[in-house]
Amino acid sequence: MLNYIWSFLVTGSVVCALLLGNTQSLSQAVIDSTASAVELLMTMAGVICLWSGLMKIAEQSGLTDIFARLFSPLLGRLFPRLDKKGAAFKCISMNISANLLGLGNTATPFGLKAMQELHRLNGESDTASDEMVIFVVMNTASLQLVPTMLATLRGSSGSAEPFDIIVPVWLSSACALAAALLIACCGNLISRKRRL
Amino acid sequence: MEFVLPAFAGIITTFALIKRVPVFDIFITGAREGFATLYKIAPTILGLVFAVSLLRSSGAIEVICRAAEPLAELLGFPKEIVPMALLRPVSGGGSTALLMSVFEDCGPDSFAGRVASVLAGSSETTFYAIAMYYGCVGVKKVRHTLIAAIAADLTAVIMSVVFVRLYFG
Predict the structure, then answer these.
(1) Which of A23, A123, B43, B96 would you call most buried, defined as having the most Cβ atoms within 10 angstroms of its Cβ?
(2) pLDDT tens for each residue of A108-165
(3) Do the domain assignments include residue A142?
(4) Rounded average pLDDT over A28-46
(5) Range of A189's domain?
């Protein structure tokens, strides 16, 4: 699936640039994109390494157990097959906590760790497990209690009330998350029925 | 809210000290694993940044926007936000730049500015998240992840207009 999307983006852009006469800026984009990819990776490198380190400390000291217990009533229902004391469950809890606090970049290392644990539980298969689908989908719907970045941007643009959009943001994210989870769970149920 | 990150780091360290865990040694082990993860996602990121910058410089977005504007107006969706809604799933930086230009053109407290804010707050860079999370473990068949994620994005687009209308009257 990602193969098709990526090829479509690349070939579609080339054709479009030819038709619109934007070939000059397209060539520039090819050159610039590698540099900006490396720049993005360097920014992520620091965040990922730092929080992977701190995550390891939290894991060893048993702090992640507390987070996992906090979220287990909710996450237990979404991931019924996962062991509530297992590493995957703890990583998912940490990822959700960081997301809720609005620490977008910090949530990523926890999420990547969670995926690695889920991958191990899935027998290193190249097909996504039910749990992976639900977990990734939860991360594509933005869950956050305090949209700090957004409010900062609004404030710097001269908004009188940078935080007054917070209630619609909550409601809209909740709907997006509900839609995503509904489809993910239905898809899981259908494929489980088919396997029986 | 700026204090959340340091506080989080402080709590983790203090808790570990109380539990008598060799804090720094474990930190080093974990950070090293972080590098291994980075190594795994690097090609995915490079490929996506390449494709998205081609898309943005080809002028394709402007063409799609012009085609989508009449439809947006018909549905009561402010047309200034169409480019941002289209770029949101593939590019975080790109859609933030477009959000700022909506703020500049219409003001952050205008209807368009509010819808753009709510949309930015309730959606994610979907394709990055999917490619990165699956890329780091080498999963190729993502099953129904994409459909569910696109449903989330569409819901966020529709609901941001609905809730801004309801909430701000």
Answers:
(1) B96
(2) 899 999 999 999 999 999 999 999 999 999 988 877 787 877 888 898 898 998 889 9
(3) no
(4) 88
(5) 147-196
| A75 & A110 share domain | yes
Chain A residues whose CB is inside 8 A of the B96 CB are 153
Taking an 8 Å cut-off on Cβ atoms, the answer to whether B50 and A62 are in contact is: no
Cβ–Cβ < 8 Å for A161, B109: yes
Q: How far is A85 from chain B (nearest CA, A)?
A: 19
Q: Which structural domain, as residue segments, surrounds residue B155?
A: 42-168
Read off the pLDDT of residues B76-86 as tens digits, 9 standing for 90 and up.
888 888 888 88
Could you write out the DSSP letters of every residue in B12-64?
Answer: HHHHHHHTT--HHHHHHHHHHHHHHHHHHHHHHHHHHHHHHHHHHHTTHHHHH
In a domain, B108, yes or no: yes
Q: From the candidates B118, B127, B140, which should be mutated to test the interface with A, based on the most A CB atoms within 10 A? A: B118
Letter string b/e over residues B134-153, b meaning 16 or more CB atoms within 10 A of that residue's CB: bbbbebeebbbbbbbbbbbb
Question: What distance, in Å, lies between the first and last C-alpha atoms of chain B?
Answer: 29
Is the pLDDT at A48 greater than 90? The verdict is no
Q: Which tens digits make up the pLDDT trace of A158-175?
A: 899 888 999 999 999 999
Q: Do A12 and B35 touch (CB under 8 A)?
A: no
Tell me whether residues B27 and A54 touch, CB distance under 8 A: yes
